[in-house]
Amino acid sequence: MHRLYQKTRHLCIKHHFPLFFKPNTPCNLLNGNQHLIAWETQNPQFSTVSTQSKLQSSQNPKHSNPSYDNPIPNNRASGFGLVRLENPIGFEEDQSYDEFSADVEKIYRILRKFHSRVPKLELALQESGVVLQSGLAERVLNRCGDAGNLGYRFFVWVSKQPGYRPSYEVYKAMIKALGKMRQFGAVWALLEEMRKDNPQLISPEVFVILMRRFASARMVKKAIEVLDEMPKYGCEPDEYVFGCLLDALCKNGNVKEAASLFEDMRIRFMPSLKHFTSLLYGWCREGKLMEAKFVLVQMREAGFEPDIVVYNNLLGGYAQAGKMADAYDLLGDMREKGCLPNAASYTILIQALCKQEKMEEAMRVFVDMERNGCEADVMTYTTLISGFCKWGKIERGYEILDSMIQKGHTPDQMIYFHIMVAHEKKEELEECLELKEEMKKIGCIPHLNIYNTIIRLACNLGEVKQGVLLWNELELNCLSPGLDTFVIMIHGFLKQDCLLEACQYFKEMVDRGLLSAPQYGTFKELMNKLLRADKLEMAKDVWSCVVTKGCELNVSAWTIWIHALFSNGHVKEACSYCLDMMDADVMPQPDTFAKLMRGLRKLYNRQIAAEITEKVRKMAADRQMTFKMYKRRGERDLKEKDKEKKDGRKRRARRRNWGGKHSSAKAL
Known about the structure:
Blueprint: H1 2-14, H2 33-42, H3 49-59, H4 66-69, H5 95-114, H6 118-126, H7 136-144, H8 148-159, H9 168-180, H10 184-197, H11 204-216, H12 220-229, H13 239-251, H14 255-264, H15 273-286, H16 289-301, H17 308-320, H18 324-336, H19 343-355, H20 359-371, H21 378-390, H22 394-406, H23 413-425, H24 429-441, H25 448-460, H26 464-476, H27 483-495, H28 499-511, H29 520-532, H30 536-548, H31 555-567, H32 571-583, H33 590-603, H34 606-622, H35 627-667
Helix pairs in contact: 1-22, 2-3, 5-6, 5-7, 7-8, 7-9, 8-9, 9-10, 9-11, 11-12, 11-13, 12-13, 13-14, 13-15, 14-15, 15-16, 15-17, 17-18, 17-19, 19-20, 19-21, 20-21, 21-22, 21-23, 22-23, 23-24, 23-25, 24-25, 25-26, 25-27, 26-27, 27-28, 27-29, 28-29, 28-30, 29-30, 29-31, 31-32, 31-33, 32-34, ...
């Protein structure tokens, strides 16, 4: 590790890469792109494909397309980012960062402390002494990260300040945050506010953000409806907006809907190369190569010749489907047609081979790439290193890292992340901590995924205190803990039976607006742990927090809570919450009803049983469902679950007995 650092440091100094950050400088990757682009403009021999694509997209934002920038059909591939470099000698430091850093951190701490108590929050913000300047609100919203509730509280307060008018960037950040929280009603309300107060700030890009959020939530109809709503706000959708909608649908697994929409809208929106590329990418991602080839035919009929991006998407489709022979043939066809493969083309093949553990063949493709005069970029090296690390060959990964540095490339965060994951698999916590420190020494600040990896490893090894220290460190580095970070910490505390701390982190997660349906497993585990430990009041407090913070309470959330209460002997409380559930117009699942009726029979409590039965009967009638069928289904489901439990116990008992006999035979 020390040898790696010394080599990296020597090469960075040799090629004028900066090594250290200034203190109190925000760790935002986007902030460094301009400095990196400026540096690479003066040093073109070290420029990377990713930087060039960013430079092109910054010059012509309308034609920037994520599927163009990243043709590799792998969700993780979008995570490759530029390392944030400090300004080289001769570039002026942006003074606004030093000017804003202290104020941003002060406001962020106030938001964290008082966000659940609005009057105190507003008073604390008023008395903070922070002067609202242009650009400060955007920085605060970026600092809040995925914690949409914090950003929303700040936006509400700052909008009330005399003389303050939200900028375009502030509105855009709020739409992104509310979209992540799936608060789409609030997004439309915000757009209405923009139309009344700042109509000049409404642009097509705002609606593109909303479309992408709907698409990522798999709300296809809502995403398409945005096109029809745009004229009401003074924006006419054009080919660019339509292309972004197709791109969003294809990237979120809705390529069928995208293809149908494309055919319906061909008269309204003139087809472009970008439209065809998005569809081809979507079909390749789904593994439907026949449909992808048909799009290629349509493209040619419309007068468009495939470019390098189209070929790379098709290469990715072949590679993902395991048709490597077809991929190699396509690579030859590209050369014959004068479209020379670039670094991304070879990286796609290397990535597919790495997934199949064909590391020697991947290295042959890498050598062939260099022999054909195509220089490997950071993405290529990252793919190779991740492949070796994935299959436990960490030393080979370090060798490629050394080679990469010697050729003048700077390792980015994703490279270190893959090495961290390999160390995590081997439960090497000390190596992870050392590598994190080495990253800082060469000016590569660890991102949130790296911290999540080390915290998860620390918690799995029972080192929860180390996890807390890392949590504090990431916040000092201006990173906001995300949903995964909270879930990792909560599970770590639960493993160590630190129930109070687990509750505190869970409530903080809810307060920041990060609880959603996929995290109900964490909620279930927490509730069961609390009730098994006879911490009924603590469990009620957590539930109250979930209810009062406006979380989406669907039938699953109610069922988890009611079943946890019932399973731990709190039958009356379970029935009480079941009545609350029905008052909220949520009908209990049939097995929940059957379980409660069984429990009430044992308690001889006919009054509550009659009340629940009457409400369920009425709700069933409202939903055009017969009560008899509902009741019968509940009893059947309950019997099946009981049978599954008994069978599971028998299987476990047989395994224990077999294990005991096997060990006895071994001893003999």
